[in-house]
Amino acid sequence: MTQTVLIVGATGMLGRRIAHHLVRSPQARVRLLVRDPHGKKEVLDPLAAKGAEVVAGDLSDAASLDRATRGVDVIVSAVQGGPEVIVEGQVRLAEIGKRNAVRRILPSDYALDLFKATPGEHTMFDMRAQADARIAETGLEQVNVLQGGFMELFMPGKGAIDLEAGTVSFFGDGHRPVEVTSVEDTARMVARAALDRALAAGKFAFAGDRVSFRQAGEIVARQSGRPIRPVSLGSEADLRALMAQADPHQQVMLAYLLYMTNGQTALTGLQNDRYGDLKLQGFADFVARQGERS
């Protein structure tokens, strides 16, 4: 059966990939909510050419959300931002969607298991958990997509791995594995989940791989042919001390490191095999393909 899917945040890194996969499905009618239908033509025009309906609207504008959610079965959110977007905007979208008989929403979670985080330690996790709790109060069914970290963030130049210095840096001993998934595979799974009427509400967790900081360094070293030396920046206590002194932006980044270090928000109950024809890419294959493209 064909379902109408509204995608919010469709011009972002993940949202555009979700839209790309949904417009290819004969089971989906795709609607894109964007602030400026005439902007980002390099993203929107190819999607519109494949049948996506582009509508103007904003999460702060209730009237536009009312128009956008009429006739919609499923909302997929891939928005980023502060509390006015992640909390107030998504809750407003859910409330109006519920009034218009939307069946399900996939909020913009896309992380490690944010529901296991200690309140007050991770601002972004706090906002998403608050939004999800308030969406639940509306009675709108929700699926919380949890894919771990994005593999792209483990690549050289993104943080931990420095090819020029020949190091991979971490807190702790660097041996704890972290769940990671590529942006592309996340988008493919989200597109399937959006149309999967049998998928139970609640956490939908999957991961392309489990890889530690040390293993990531070893894999990149093999693929690049350049030595990479593991460097510990200190203990978990040292990391927490840095967080206490950091500015809000730095605190968010350090909080991600905290949960990668202590494993508190590790994913469980992975549903990697829910869609048998969709094989998730491991980290070594991902790095190899990135090398082929560069």
From TrEMBL:
Q: Which Gene3D superfamilies match?
A: NAD(P)-binding Rossmann-like Domain, UDP-galactose 4-epimerase, domain 1
Question: A single Pfam family, by name?
Answer: NmrA
Q: Which InterPro entries match?
A: NAD(P)-bd_dom_sf, NmrA-like, NmrA/Isoflavone_reductase-like
TM ranges: none
Supply one GO molecular-function term: oxidoreductase activity
Keywords, in A-Z order: NADP, Oxidoreductase
Every NmrA-like domain range: 1-242
| PANTHER family noted in UniProt | CIPA-LIKE, PUTATIVE (AFU_ORTHOLOGUE AFUA_1G12460)-RELATED (PTHR47706:SF1), NMRA-LIKE FAMILY PROTEIN (PTHR47706)
Q: What is this protein's record name?
A: Isoflavone reductase (NADPH:isoflavone oxidoreductase)-like protein
